[in-house]
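Memo to structure team: turn this sequence into structure tokens by end of day. - J.P.
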Amino acid sequence: INTEGQILSKQWFDWADVFREGFASVRLNGKWNFINTKGQFLSKQWFDWVADFNEGFAKIKLNGKWNFINTEGQLLSQQWFDCVKDFYEGFAAVMLNGKWNFINREGQVAFKQWFDCVGYFKEGFAQVKLNGMWNFINTKGQLLSNLWFDDVDNFNEGVAKVKLNDKYNFINTEGQLLFNQWFDSAGVFYEGFAAVMLNGKWN
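Reply from structure team:
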């Protein structure tokens, strides 16, 4: 319904969600679609499940496989995946046969290397896991560091927290560790500062 009390669609649904990026998901008889602000359906195809639009694309599920749909109602990729995540900074994580990669806005698998697990792009870098260890890749698929870590956080304010052998440090966008000292624990940088713990004390 709009602010003037007019019903948007002649069709009544079993469920209707809020509008995001100009479209709202709707469910009817167990299947999902989208409507636009004129009450028109986005796709002739109805899906088993859909997610909200994010960066111009929405996740869709059909017959146990995943893809994306754009605001024109077109599928992003000819390939259907076992799992997909939302778009961030122009890339979305996709899984196929137990391995992860990213897909770009053109529907192309972005990188040659497939990984055991991935995060999402933030400040130009994404977390990637291979053989039990973590690193980062940039938007060209290049590894950030020669070192692999036990765990990594997302970048924030140009640095990311990394963990190795139960100690913590930070890495910058050049792949350099910020400190010679490794800490027992560490927070995240906000407004240029991060809390760190050493020998049971915080600073």
